[in-house]
Automatic annotation (TrEMBL):
SMART domains registered for this protein in UniProt: HTH_ARAC
InterPro entries linked: AraC-type_N, Homeodomain-like_sf, HTH_AraC, Tscrpt_reg_AraC-type_HTH
Cellular component GO terms, alphabetical: cytosol
GO molecular function (one): DNA-binding transcription factor activity
Domain of life: Bacteria
Domain HTH araC/xylS-type as annotated: residue spans: 239-336
Protein name as annotated: AraC family transcriptional regulator
Keywords: DNA-binding, Transcription, Transcription regulation
Source organism per UniProt: Aquirhabdus parva
Stretch forming the signal peptide: none
Upper lineage: Bacteria, Pseudomonadati, Pseudomonadota, Gammaproteobacteria, Moraxellales
Length: 339
């Protein structure tokens, strides 16, 4: 059932919006079997049916069909979790699109993305992974507007409001009345189209991203492959190894224990890692970074607690390791989450 789940981040954003409108968490989460604290847990996921009920409750309690737009406009790179940091670390928009397409299922299971270039336009087509029924319009509007905001974030300092209007959002249904109030804050909108799409000039595909960080991009890719494996969305051997490297009681499995779980000798296991140009220690570091990101995103945990859960008895050792991996201290990383 993990394949039909999504990151709880999206529900937590809706929870904060509901609270800003005077709606209690219990009202928003009615009939979902969820409690608010669950949504704040590291790597928390909820089922697609639970997200659908949250959307239904939110629309019913607010009587505001434009909420998909409001939520989309509040989106940023950090909302996308580890994918957001991967996008901003990519060298170009083309690379960012490929990374987003690859790892979207780890965050949102509702859509698949197809990328094409048509008549000098880059076209990202949004296709439903399964029927969305009564919340289809909400999901499509929210997703396309969120993508446009992330696009703008990637080119911050390079992209003027006028150029932002060169972006195009295509919808395959008639224009709802509530869009009129938002048109000055959105890209160009086209309704009654053949598909739901995000379009922009193909000349921008190789435009560099100012925050590019090749080392970070590779770490995020590694984390993404591990997450795909954890969710049962890949059959890659190396991803299965990453999924087995789970910290328990402050300790990660060692090479011999992983080899046993894979039904391999230690020598064969090392050889297979070498074929991937990896050592066990290098692989373990990428997994520890994956887990560090997830734990640091839980504001209820102190950095000392995060350090201990990752097997570091001394916080300073964790801080040095994290800065070596990312160029930031854990505290600096948390600051970016709240920006």
């Amino acid at each position: 059932m993990l394949q039909t789940s999504l990151a709880a981040t999206y529900a937590s954003y809706m929870l904060r919006l509901a609270e800003s409108r005077g709606i209690e968490a219990e009202q928003l989460l009615a009939h979902t079997d969820l409690i608010a604290s669950t949504l704040l847990q590291p790597q928390a996921r909820i089922f697609a049916w639970q997200q659908a009920i949250i959307v239904h409750n939110l629309l019913k309690l607010t009587n505001d069909p434009s909420l998909a737009i409001e939520i989309g406009l509040r989106s940023n790179l950090t909302k996308a979790g580890f994918i957001g940091y991967g996008l901003m670390s990519c060298a170009t928009l083309r690379d960012a699109i490929e990374l987003g397409r690859r790892f979207l299922p780890t965050q949102v299971p509702f859509f698949k993305l197809r990328f094409d270039v048509e008549n000098e336009m880059a076209v990202v087509t949004v296709e439903e992974a399964f029927p969305l029924w009564h919340f289809r319009t909400f999901a499509i509007e929210n997703f396309l507007i969120e993508v446009s905001e992330i696009f703008r974030s990637l080119l911050v300092g390079q992209y003027t409001p006028g150029k932002y209007q060169q972006l195009q959002l295509y919808f395959d249904y008639p224009e709802p009345d509530y869009f009129a109030a938002y048109k000055d804050r959105l890209p160009k909108l086209y309704f009654n189209q053949a598909a739901n799409q995000f379009r922009f000039s193909a000349r921008m595909l190789d435009q560099p991203i100012s925050t590019a960080n090749p080392a970070m991009a590779q770490l995020v890719i590694s984390q993404g492959e591990s997450e795909l494996a954890r969710l049962g969305l890949t059959e890659n051997w190396l991803d299965r190894v990453r999924a087995l490297l789970e910290c328990q009681a402050g300790q990660y499995p060692d090479l011999p224990s992983i080899a046993v779980q894979l039904h391999l000798s230690e020598r064969t296991f090392k050889r297979k890692l070498a074929e991937q140009n990896l050592s066990f220690s290098e692989l373990l570091e990428t997994v520890m970074l994956r887990d560090a990101y997830a734990l640091l995103q839980n504001s209820m945990l102190s950095i000392d607690e995060v350090s201990q859960r990752l097997g570091y008895q001394d916080r300073s050792n964790f801080t040095r390791a994290f800065k070596r991996w990312t160029g930031q201290t854990p505290s600096e990383y948390r600051t970016t989450l709240s920006a």
